[in-house]
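Memo to structure team: turn this sequence into structure tokens by end of day. - J.P.
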Amino acid sequence: MTSRIRNTGKLETIIENCRSEGKWPRVIELAEELKQGSPNYECLANFLIGEGRLESFLEDNPPVEANTNKLKNGLQDAKRYLKLVIGEDGRKAGIALDAFLLLAKLDYACGNYDESLDNFIKAELNTLSEKELTLRSLRILAESYAIKGLCLEQQGIKAPSKFKKAEKEAEMISCFEKATDLGLLYLQEQDIVTPSNVETRRMGAILETALQRAPIVLIKAGRLQEAIERYRTMLNAVETRTTQSLRLTLARQLAEVLLRGVSGTMYTPPLNLSSTKTGPNTKKLWKPRKYSGRNQFTPRNHHEEIILLLLISESLAVRDAVLSQSPEFRVARSHALGNATAVYDLLALSTIRWGLSNLLNESFEKALKFTFGEQHVWRQYALNLTFLGHHKHALRALEEYSDLAPHDPLPLLLSARICYENLGNISEGLEYSLQALSKEIRGLRPSRAQLYVGVGYQQLAVTAALKSEKEKYTKLAIDALEKAVQYDTNDHLAEYYLALHHAINYNISEAIVHIRFALSLRAEHASSLHLFSLLLTANRRPREALCIAENALDEFPDNLNLLHVRAHLQLHLHDIDTALQTVQKMLSIWRDQYESQTMVNENDNERHSDTKSILQLHSSQLSDKDSNSVYAASLAAASRVEQALSEVASSLSSFSPKPGPQRAWMIQLKIWLLLADVYLAIDQPNEALNCIQEAAQIYPLHHQVMYMRGQIYVYLSQWYDAKQCFLNAVSANPCHIEALTALGETHHVLGEPRLAEKMLKDAAKLDPNYPKIWFTLGKVMETLGDYTAAADCMATALQLEPCCPVTGKCSGAISRRNNVKYLFQ
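Reply from structure team:
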């Protein structure tokens, strides 16, 4: 490609400047003047007129398939002018090459791909050598390679053989790569010559398509690593004003390719560009300038590069955000929002995968400045807040999401779940569930909302103090859960919660029927297997229960709930050595799963700690990875007492909370208490006391620690010390049934029957279905001489005993004192 204007005067210089700036009406006007004033330049003038008419028409009508017929009719005049200069006169004037390239562009716009390729052959595009070019010539050449690549892509689909197809594919990839390099170089040169206060000329549809198409054709050809390198090369090119929006697309696409198509073992980090700098003698004329520097950051691994790309994309998306809400900016605002949402979706996937939720939270907080009306962003933000444990903030975010999606029950269900599981606010959770139910009924799929309503009523029944309230909520719960089963007969969770409700109310036979049906719907549900095992113990079938627990542990070997049940069953069946091994295995699993979480600096303790109360953690955390608690609201008072005791302990001693998430420590505390129980069963009180000391180092004033210490004193017949421990446990948690029962029994042994009667009756009010309470109360009433009441108490104990699970002594799995309650899945 040669220069066509050689010192031909001021007019020609003005024309060349107008061509570079894309002022095509002015080019045509000046070409007409040149044609009239200098007949010797008629050939050049015809070329300029044809070029001007082609480019001006394409600016108003981009070369897309929908415009094909319009372009065929509208470009006839331009085609006629360009054909006038492809003969000998054009070759002598040095413009025939350019004319062929523009004719190829014209044929491509009209959908004549074969004719376009013929023009490239006539122009001998493949034989061009690198040399200095004007700005306009750079653009023509970049577009020519792009158009040739697009035409070859069209031809490749119809290739007659695999060999021809591969040949076309290789040539097409080469064209796209050259178009990319020349296009970026053109945009860089344009930035240099265009003043900063002048609007930069647009890239154009053809160049933009080529820049985005280059890596995609490599991916389609199965050359993934080359595609990644092409993305990196384009992103490392010096940025221009025109490529800022394109840079966002390329960075996001590369991050998506690395996320979806590259594993950690296949990953190859980018080269250190500072070590591969080329000298001045090796500079290539048709390659774009690249960033280079001694302190330039280079990603070292897979996730570093992905996070870097997404953070770059996010900064570009935030910069391009349209804050104005005026109607005239609606399209631009929608486009910018679409780009930002795509970036935040990928950022959510990658940050959650690598445990960078705090980083994601910061990004969402920035995003809300310009996406405050976008329900998708609010939903992602709320889910991330929930994951981080910021439950109150998550609830507010879900309320905003619900306002933006008034017909969607999902935000209400998520809000109910947070209230049930994390905030202990059952009434508010039930209100959200009822609102969701009203929306889902209109949507003809109310099963899950109906289930949430049933769970809410179930928890209100569990926590109700008055008998009338308990009966009312129990009836509402059973009605709601039965409706949930009717609405979706294949929902294993509805059957599971219905079984749980029957179990809480000691309808063991009904509970077993429903839990069997839940397992027939989903046999691998750990929570259902756990409940089934407990129900079998309540049905006095401990060996079958142990078999179920063993089989479940084959599927879920690290499930601490199932191991807990197995240990109690082994104790019940006098298999003490195996029970001891089971608890030791639980400690080993804790080390594998949780010890790393506790390895944090003391300064980070607050940042990493859970927001749940100690009592909530104790009541629930021996749960598998797909399950968790639905906390009872009545436990809040006990939690506050424990918190006060903790503050007293902190002020009177050197005790301070363990670093790291408190959830992990409370799981370990419960394992130590279970181990102490096992050692007591094999008559090793000293070893049991050592276990209590280990638990006390985690949380010395926890009610279970004090209760278990009292049990050791009972074993040693040190009743006054036992009484003090049980009093402390009841002070820390007035709802702890075992401590109240043990305190009543201790008063009885110490000759204080009236105090024993008071403690046991308080325990019976909290849980009238615990047989040990009635048995002990019967003995107390016998001591007091009330033989009729004693007989009634003993009869009640005998009636309840067949329905009490073996593990009820310590874990209280099917009773008010510590329900089996699991996370919705």
